[in-house]
Amino acid sequence: MLISKELNNGINEQVGHELDASHQYLSIAAYFEARHLKKFAELFRKQAAEERAHADKFIQFILDANGEVKIPAIPAPKWEFTSAEEAVNLALNWENDVTKKIYALIDQAVAEKNHIAREFLGWFATEQLEEVSSMEQLLAVVQMSTEKNLLMIEAYISHQ
Questions:
Q1: Phi, psi (rounded to 5 degrees) for 73
Q2: Which domains does the chain have, with CATH numbers?
Q3: Of 46, 67, 62, 68, which is closest to residue 120 (Cα–Cα)?
Q4: Closest CA to 5 of 63, 68, 59
């Protein structure tokens, strides 16, 4: 087996976090869709699909390493938001939390001298730079524009 029980359990937990993120992003997309902000909704649907793809990568890694896949229960996402800023801020906070979780998995792989897992997890650390950066930028633009100017952000998003 190319994975310890502890690292296997941690990666199974990460599968749950990725699927939880996917559900949360679908909920945020629905919030924006209900407000007729199609580009916001499209952006968060894309994020949801990315998170599901990340979960698939983690699952495949466990299987390739002869580990055991145990997908945890996924809690219901937050579905009520008072503003676009709240929704985007939730996404940013989520990405920051995921970054910490990925770092903890990397630390565990390094401690176990599991270079295969470390290399695999390194891709996710690099991915988090893009995820956090893009949410920080979106939040900054939302904060600058205020709720009254969200249609302007629709144009901003469509040109990215």
A1: -65, 145
A2: 5-158 (1.20.1260.10)
A3: 62
A4: 68
Structural contact between residues 28 and 43, judged by C-beta atoms closer than 8 angstroms: no
Q: Which tokens sit at 149?
A: 């100017």
Tell me if residue 4 falls in helix, strand or coil. coil
**Quick one: tokens of 41?**
């909704």
Which residues are CB-neighbours of 78 under 8 A, at least 6 positions away? 24, 27, 90
Question: Whole-angstrom Cα distance, residue 56 to residue 51?
Answer: 9
Q: What is the distance of C-alpha 70 from the center of its chain?
A: 19
How many CA atoms lie within 13 Å of 64's alpha carbon, on the beta-carbon side?
Answer: 10
Amino acid at 147: E
Angle between helices 150-158 and 38-64 (to 10 degrees): 50
48-59: per-residue pLDDT in tens?
999 999 999 999
Calculate the CA 122 to chain-centre distance: 15
pLDDT digits (tens, 9 = 90+) for 19-63: 999 999 999 999 999 999 999 999 999 999 999 999 999 999 999
Conformational region of residue 71, where left means phi above 0, alpha means psi within -120 to 50, and beta covers everything else? beta
